[in-house]
Design goal:
266 residues, mainly alpha, Helix Hairpins, two-stranded antiparallel ribbon, 2 strands, 82% helix
């Protein structure tokens, strides 16, 4: 069953590749690569910034074990150097002591003043034998001291290297932490700006509202005028003015034009 599924998958892939080849020809690999790049780029852009910041902080935190290892390496190198320095100091002291003894024994051989221990005198042959033995031991100590000094030089370089590596890790962690904190602060600033923009007043909206209110007021005023004019021009009832019967209009006219009739003489 599994073999059949694998075969079907391979056949499907082959058919898909064949279809791409028929459509795009030799440029098919380029199209596939471009499409894959766009998919990856789009997926990466879809990742929230907060997630990227958290991921960066986790990677910086992962530097902790490396720094701990660097501290242990540095401490171990310092300990080895200090220990070897003490050994070199002790070996140097012993070598100097052996050198002084050799010089004294060689001087006594030259002068014939042979060493005596507990009143026993040594022969020249015995002194030469002891001198050769002590000389060989001196050379071994000197060679060992030279090797230790060479080793110390290497260990001191290791100490410098360990210190530089530890300082570099520490500086990198501080720099990256500062940069991530800066990115977090910048993100918070952008969020605050976006939040503030949601509560800002829209001048265009206010202008539109004012325009609408003005139009409404004009419409109401026009409606009032229409009602007023309708009452004036469409009223069918005729108002009749009743003249004042107590008035003497004729006399008023005569008085105006000085045409009053003269009185008759009898």
């Amino acid at each position: 069953m599994v073999c059949k599924m694998v075969k079907r998958g391979l056949i499907g892939a082959a058919l898909g590749a064949g279809a791409l080849g028929l459509i795009f020809g030799t440029a098919a690999p380029s199209y596939v690569h471009t499409a894959w790049h766009k998919v990856r780029h789009g997926a990466k852009n879809a990742v929230p910034v907060e997630f990227e910041i958290d991921r960066a902080r986790n990677e910086i935190a992962a530097l902790g074990p490396a720094i701990d290892n660097g501290i242990e390496t540095y401490a171990r190198a310092l300990t080895q150097v200090d220990q070897l320095k003490r050994e070199i100091a002790s070996s140097t002291e012993q070598l100097n002591k052996e050198g002084r003894s050799l010089q004294a024994l060689n001087e006594s051989l030259k002068t014939g003043d042979l060493h005596r221990t507990s009143g026993v005198a040594y022969s020249e042959r015995e002194v030469k034998k002891a001198l050769a033995k002590n000389w060989d031991r001196y050379n071994v100590l000197k060679s060992t001291l030279g090797e230790k000094q060479a080793t110390l030089s290497i260990l001191e370089k290791n100490v410098d290297s360990a210190k530089q590596g530890l300082d570099a890790l520490k500086a990198a962690r501080l720099e990256l932490t500062a940069r991530v904190d800066g990115a977090q602060a910048r993100l918070n600033q952008i969020k605050a700006a976006r939040a503030a923009s949601r509560f800002s007043f829209d001048d265009s909206a206010i202008g539109q509202a004012k325009k609408t209110v003005n139009e409404l007021e004009s419409k109401l005023e026009q409606m009032a005028r229409v009602d007023e004019l309708k009452e004036k021009y469409l009223d069918d009832e005729t108002t009749v003015t009743i003249p004042d019967v107590t008035r003497d209009v004729s006399k008023e006219i005569e008085a105006e034009f000085n045409t009053a009739p003269k009185a008759e003489k009898y």
